[in-house]
Amino acid sequence: MNIPNPIIVALDVPDSAQALQLVHALSGKVGAFKVGKELFVSSGPEIVKQIRATGAHVFLDLKFHDIPNTVAKAVEAATFLDVQMLTIHASGGKLMMQAAEEAAQKTALKLNRPAPLVLAVTVLTSLDGPQIAEIGLQPDVEKQVERLALLAASAGIRGLVCSPLEIVPLRKVIPPSVQLVTPGIRPAASDLGDQKRVMTPREAVQAGANWLVIGRPIYASPNPADAALQILQSLSTPHPVAA
User: What is the CATH number of domain 7-233?
Assistant: First the structure.
């Protein structure tokens, strides 16, 4: 999958009408649109079909986490929807991740289209050290991310979702071909919301991110198209764009 524009807009809105309004407003200005749980539950697979009908790329972010066969069937269904990216939880284990990647490849081959990029989620960007300790893990986010990332790579997974703060250490240990998709992206002076491990778009790209997932700074802006353009320009300007 090749997205020359690295911005993926999170369509974290409650219904298809608002989502499609954003898609049309941002058409040609961003690289892809992320459909997450809220929108998918409210609007179903139809919203993916409607977005794809515009020619836009879709990142289906449902974070599948179940037994290998169940996840494989879900990935197969997502591939039939013609999404370009989808997420699974790395904590589901190596067999689950292998089943997901195999399902994506086999289904895409049947359909004669490129396989979607299966992305393993390491540690959610809303979690920090004390919070992962609460669920029985060592309170070292970086080590947990690295452990899960290496497991995903050994399972043949071609992409990871990680905090921008983990990009540099991950690039030291994972194969260079593995794509990194980073949420927790906030332009300078933006509200952090519920994200704890964040970085500006420019910092994330310089660190080695392939794609940037950006939500509220774009969709909650009075002019989403202008907000997206300013972020894109900030990635190539010699100095950060003034607020």
Answer: 3.20.20.70
Q: What is the CA radius of gyration of the chain?
A: 17
What is the distance between the alpha carbons of residues 97 and 152, in angstroms, rounded to a whole number? 7
Q: Per DSSP, which regions of the chain are E strands? A: 7-10, 32-35, 58-64, 85-89, 117-121, 159-161, 179-182, 211-214
pLDDT in tens, 35-59: 999 999 999 999 999 999 999 999 9
Give the C-alpha distances (Å, rounded to integers) separating 52 from 13, 27, 59, 162. Answer: 18, 11, 11, 26
106 is catalytic: no
> Alpha carbon of 174 to those of 62, 106, 153, 158: distances in Å?
24, 25, 7, 10
Catalytic-role residue among 34, 49, 63, 143:
63
Q: Is the pTM higher than 0.85?
A: yes
Domain ranges of the chain: 7-233
